[in-house]
Design brief:
Helix content: over 70%
Largest sheet: none
Order of helices and strands: HHHHHH
Structural class: mainly alpha
Shape: elongated
Number of strands: 0
Number of helices: 6
Radius of gyration: 17 Å
């Protein structure tokens, strides 16, 4: 965690874990309806892994992207949209009320989207952030992330103030609730 890449090292490690799980899902997905139980178990594992990882990106990584990269706002907004699509596809892939063919289709789309997203971050975005963000800041973010993990999943958005994450922001926008103590704008 306190290596030269700090936060980027942490996120890269998480990416490798997600990619390993995607390879396992590929095998199950290829077996089709005969592997429904295995697929559901792996999707539940992916759900847990992605919940932590996407939250880490939204609360630690993408604020750096917004702050330090010239097109950071657009990149962070695009990532928030991708994260929401990933969550929606994952929920549909796990929804046992849907026909197996629909769940299989959602799983396939999820695998493609996640691979493209991880690849884009690993190959393009991480090098840009590595070049633009001071190493000390990346280490500080990794330390805060580790501290939030130790605090446990019950702490709001990993120990950060309510309203910090993209999901909380969307919730606030649609419900009119503002948990950030900022005045509402138009």
């Amino acid at each position: 965690m306190n290596g030269p890449d700090g936060l980027l090292g942490e996120l890269s490690t998480a990416h490798r874990a997600v990619e390993a799980l995607l390879r396992r899902l590929d095998t199950v997905h290829a077996r089709g309806e005969h592997a429904v139980a295995d697929g559901h178990r792996l999707l539940a594992e992916l759900d847990r892994l992605l919940d932590e990882h996407l939250t880490a990106e939204e609360t630690s990584f993408y604020p750096l992207v917004r702050q330090y990269l010239p097109a950071g706002r657009a990149l962070a907004d695009a990532a928030a949209h991708t994260h929401e699509t990933v969550r929606r596809l994952l929920a549909r892939a796990m929804d046992e009320r849907l026909p197996a063919a629909d769940r299989t289709h959602c799983t396939g789309a999820l695998l493609v989207l996640l691979r493209a997203h991880l690849s884009g971050e690993n190959e393009r975005l991480f090098p840009l952030v590595r070049a633009a963000v001071p190493a000390a800041e990346l280490r500080r973010c990794a330390d805060r992330l580790a501290e939030a993990r130790r605090a446990g999943p019950c702490s709001p958005v990993w120990g950060l103030p309510p309203g910090t994450g993209a999901i909380a922001s969307l919730r606030d926008r649609f419900t009119g609730h503002d948990s950030t103590d900022r005045p509402h704008g138009p």
